[in-house]
Amino acid sequence: EPGKVEFDPAGALQRSTPAHWGDYVKGVFVEYGKVNVEVPGLDVAVGGDIPGGGLSSSASLEVGIALLIETFTGYSSSDDNFANRQALSWLAQRAENEFVGVNCGIMDQGAIALGKENHAMLMDCSDLSINYYAVELGDYSLLIVNSCKQRRLGESAYNKRCEEVALALSILQPVFGIGALCELPIDLVNDALECIDDPILCRRVRHVVSEHDRVSKAASRLSSGDIEGFGKLLDESHRSLQQDYEVTGHELDTLIGLAQQQPGVLGARMMGAGFGGCGLVLIKTSNIEQFSEVVGTAYRAEIGYDAEFYPA
């Protein structure tokens, strides 16, 4: 059955062919098996309210299953709740990397496991340290726009982008002494690009370094209440994802492009890994109804099927 998966948690688990959502569940069981957590047979019902792709639905499934296992077995890697949630996040990431075969980072799992209501998170993905920022948007709201373009990350160019970033890092690491591209200061990005002959890798470096700079600026804008400045960063981010990282696609570009043209919109960008899924729009709350009607009609005319809209 499409909505059902059965396996022996003590058995030698294998990834499904073709890929199946149950692989995310099995991968988590495999990781707990590596630390000798014994899980007896269970009947588990899984439900959720994450509406579309690009909103960490796979990470939420992994983290939810991990919390179930720890609650059921009493296992904990630390007496400190925050530290335990950090460890749980790393475990869930390993499940996706090693079992599912998607070379994702830690951001999604960390956000799901360590998120705080009504707060943005400035996360250091090297160690999962987090600064929280209260989000006060006043007359504005965050609106999720779903392109309804389906994709599987394992079947997209997502892993290819990871390989390109790793290759670029291998070129720049000995020159600049960095452990990750995001450690390169924004004012050195042009110097870095001169070290790389491949124009594709140059675009990937420019995106990663500039996006890291935008994230830092976004935290500053939110903490100071500069909502307009935050919205401009959303627009800049989408442009970089479209032109330099090349992970958007016709559906997302159409949807975000339409959104950015509407009254009351301060900014918009795609969410998640791209190639379909959802976007985020910063919009005046009183304009949401008109926005949904106008953008929905124009999107259907261009793409041929409906988009969906959800208040964040």
Describe this structure in words.
The protein is of the alpha+beta class. The protein folds into two domains: 22-134, 2-Layer Sandwich (Ribosomal Protein S5, domain 2), CATH 3.30.230; 140-311, Alpha-Beta Plaits (2-Layer Sandwich). The protein contains ten helices and six strands. It has helices spanning 22-34, 57-73, 81-100, 107-114, 158-176, 189-193, 199-224, 227-243, 250-260, 288-303; strands at 119-124, 129-134, 140-146, 265-270, 278-284, 308-311. A four-stranded antiparallel sheet has the order 4-5-3-6. The protein is globular.
Short note summarizing the structure:
The chain has about 300 residues and is of the alpha+beta class. It has 10 helices and 6 strands.
State the CATH class of the largest domain: Alpha Beta
Give the overall form.
globular
How many domain regions? 2
Rounded mean pLDDT score: 94
Under CATH, the topology of the largest domain can be stated as Alpha-Beta Plaits
Uncertain spans: none
Number of helices: 10
Give the CATH H-level superfamily of the largest domain. Answer: GHMP kinase, C-terminal domain
Radius of gyration: 20 Å
**N→C terminal distance:** 32 Å
Beta-strand percentage range: 5-15%
List the helices and strands in order: HHHHEEEHHHHHEEHE
Strand order of the main beta sheet, please? Answer: 4-5-3-6
- Structural category: alpha+beta
Per CATH, which architecture of the largest domain? Answer: 2-Layer Sandwich
Q: Level of helix content?
A: 40-55%
Q: Main sheet, how many strands, which sense, barrel?
A: 4 strands, antiparallel
